[in-house]
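Hey, I was hoping to borrow your eyes for a little while. No rush at all, and the record is pasted right below:
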Amino acid sequence: MATALERALDEFDRINAADPRAQRELIFSRRVFEWVLRLNPQASESAQLAARAHTVRRWEVPRDRYPMDTGGYHAWRAATAAHSADAAAAVLQSLGYPGPAIDHVGRLIRRELAPQDQDAQLLEDADCLAFLELKLTDYLERWDEEKLARILHGTLVKMSPAARRVALGLPLDSRVGALLRMAG
């Protein structure tokens, strides 16, 4: 019999498999989850749940509904985090998770916990590493070098020292790797 964690992960995967963008969020959330366990094999259940659910149904909040600037990006990220946290809460509630556990997962997804919170930093590190691996290369042709360097710097600043060391060792596109070393 599957555990509540396994059932929740399966349900998040089932939902994200409906992503019309070639299951982009399914692939990304699985990679974030893998990074969480790779960085901390004893990661809490809340961190594991948040990793797999932090982008659940994200495609339902289109990026183009927000200004295509830094402020618009941050507003979109907050909106998608709230949307994903609500979707995750519905799944967890249906599986019988207690209210405090659901609230903690939601706070992780919405990034309400300070980086000093172990689960919050672990999720941030995993999210940044998965971004570098899976998404950044897609933006190379769209962003100029200055914007790319700014985003890489912002990404590295959010990461723990240990995760930054991991990032510098990733096999990335040579353009990204060079910028990453300069930004770090």
User: Anything to note?
Assistant: Residues 4-120 form one domain.
